From TrEMBL:
Sample GO molecular function, one term: 4-alpha-hydroxytetrahydrobiopterin dehydratase activity
Sorted UniProt keywords: Lyase
Protein name: Putative pterin-4-alpha-carbinolamine dehydratase
Cross-referenced NCBIfam families: PRK00823.1-3 (NF002018)
InterPro entries attached to this UniProt entry: PCD_sf, Pterin_deHydtase
E.C. number(s) listed in UniProt: 4.2.1.96
Catalytic activity: (4aS,6R)-4a-hydroxy-L-erythro-5,6,7,8-tetrahydrobiopterin = (6R)-L-erythro-6,7-dihydrobiopterin + H2O
Species per Swiss-Prot/TrEMBL record: Marinomonas profundimaris
Length: 102
């Protein structure tokens, strides 16, 4: 499936839909789809990152992320289109589902 960079109005609409369907904490930061997840402890944060890594690898779409103890900050962008694509929103939805299991 070919992905293209979304236009600002498409990003706004997709963000609204994502935040309606999930946990309401995704935003656009540094021109990337961003969210900070907080977990009970490091074990849960690392478990989340491991599940996300396996999911991202299957999609050949890899997040930019930063972890300190129980916090995981994620930023998504589609590098081959130099911006946000539907691929980022699909992965964000999956990440929210994974986080809800912890």
């Amino acid at each position: 499936m070919t992905h293209r960079k979304l236009e600002p109005h498409e990003i706004e609409q997709a963000l609204k839909q994502l935040n309606t369907e999930t946990s309401h904490n995704w935003s656009i930061e540094d021109e990337k789809l961003s969210k900070t997840f907080k977990f009970k402890d490091f074990q849960h944060a690392f478990g989340f990152m491991t599940m996300c890594a396996l999911c991202a690898e299957k999609q050949d779409h890899h997040p930019e992320w930063f972890n300190v103890y129980s916090t995981v900050k994620i930023q998504l962008t589609t590098h081959d289109v130099s911006g946000i694509s539907r691929k980022d929103f699909a992965l964000a939805t999956q990440m929210d589902l994974l986080a809800s299991r912890l």
